[in-house]
Amino acid sequence: MGLFRRAPRRHAFDTGALGSAADAGSAAAKAAKAPVALGLWADGLGKVATRSLQIAIVIGIAALAVIGLQQVTVVWIPVIIALIFACAFAPLMSWLRRRGVPSVVATLITMLAVVIVLGLAGWLIVWAVRNQWDDLYSQAEAGFQQLVAWINTLPFAPTDNQIQEWSDQVIDFVTSAQFGSGALAGVGVLANFVTGLILMIVVLFFFLKDGPWLWEFLLRPFRGENEARARRIGDKTVVTLGSYVRGTAAVAFVDAVGIGIGLVILQVPLALPLAVLVFLLAFIPIVGATVAGILAALVALVANDWVNALFVVGVVVLVNQLEGNFLQPVLMGRTLKLHAFVILIALTIGTVLGGILGAVLAVPITAVVWGAIKVWNGPNEPARWAQKKAVEPAV
Fold first, then answer.
1. How many Å apart are CA 256 and CA 124, to the nearest integer?
2. Quick one: which of 387, 384, 382 has its CA closest to 371?
3. Which of 243, 255, 228 is nearest to 367 (CA)?
4. Can you tell me the distance from the alpha carbon of 318 to that of 330, in angstroms, rounded to the nearest whole number?
5. What is the pTM of this model?
6. 212-248 burial string, b = 16+ CB within 10 Å, else e?
7. Lowest mean pLDDT among 39-53, 123-137, 281-295
8. pLDDT confidence bin for 307, thresholds 50/70/90
9. What is the rounded average pLDDT for all residues in the chain?
10. CA 81/CA 275 separation, integer angstroms
11. In a designed cystine with 226, which of 178, 184, 222, 345 is the match (CB 3.0 to 4.6 A)?
12. What is the per-residue pLDDT for 143?
C-alpha cells in the first residue's frame, strides 16, 4: 500500500569507514534539516481532496437525516412546536410552582388559558366574517364585473368563445378523476393535521408538567465539562425560544392592533379577520408583513377603490417601520437579533424543506443554534471559531 503512505520508506545504507560518531551526528543533523518528502495525500492537492471528502460525507449524512425527518414529519414537527410553546410558557409555570401550585394543576391552568384565548379569537373571526360576508361578496362581485368590463376594452381581450372554452376546461377538471384524487389527498392531509395537533397537545402537556425531570433524564449520559456544556445549551435554548415567541407575539399583537385600527378608520371590510391574519403572519419575519399588507390592500381595492387601497398600504408601511425601528429592539433585545441575510437564508431553506410551517420554524431554530454556539465554551464564551477578532468592521 505504498501508494497511500504519507512519506516514502527510508532505506538504511552502510557507511563503512565513515561511520564514526561525529559523522553520524552530522548526518543526523543534515537529515533533520532536509525537506521531508510528501506522500500522495499529504501535499496541497491531497489535503484539498481529504477535506472535500469530509465535507461530502457530512453533507450526505445531513441529507439522509433530512430525508428521514421528512418521512416522520407528523411526529417531530408537533414535538418541536410543543417544545417552543413549553419554552414560551416556562416563566408562567415557574411562577405557579414557586407559589406551591402542583405541576398537574399548573399545567391544566396554562393549557386552559391558551384554549380560552384561541377560542375567543376564533369566535371573533367567525362573528366578523358572518356579519360582513354578504356585503363583501356583493362588492367583490361588482369589482369583478368592473374588471371584466375593463379587460373587454383591451385590444387583446379574449373572445366569448375563448371564455366558454376555459370554463369548459375548468368544469372538466373539477369532474375528472385527477381532481377526485387531489381531494382524497386533501383528506389525508387533514387527517395528518388532526393527528399532529392531538400529538402536539399531549406532548405539550408532558413538557409543561414534567419538563425539568425529562431534562435531567436526558442529561444522565453526560459527565464533567460535557454535562456543563449541555446544561448551558439547554438553558440557552429555553431562554431563546421563550424570548423569541413572547417577543414576536408582542410585536405581532401591536402590529395587528395598529393595522386593525387603520382598517377600521378607512372602513375596510373584514378589518378584524385581517388584523388576526396580520398577527399570524407576523411570525414569519420579513415575508409575513409583506403578504399581510398585500392582502389588506387587495380587500380595500375590491371593496372600496384604489385610493383607499393606497392609504391601507401607507398604514401597513408605517406600522412596519415602527415595529422594525422601535418594538423589536425593545421587546426582543439584541441577544436574539439575527442578520437579515441569515434570516432570508433560513426562511428559504425552511420553506423548501417544510413549506409554510418550515418558514415559521426556521428563524427560531436558527436562533437556537446560534445561541448554543455563543455558550459553547462558557456562559459568555462562544466556540473558538465564532469568537470575535481584535479588529472587525462595524456593522
1. 14
2. 382
3. 243
4. 18
5. 0.71
6. eeeeeeeeeeeeeeeeebbebbeebbbbbbbbbbbbb
7. 123-137
8. confident
9. 78
10. 23
11. 222
12. 64
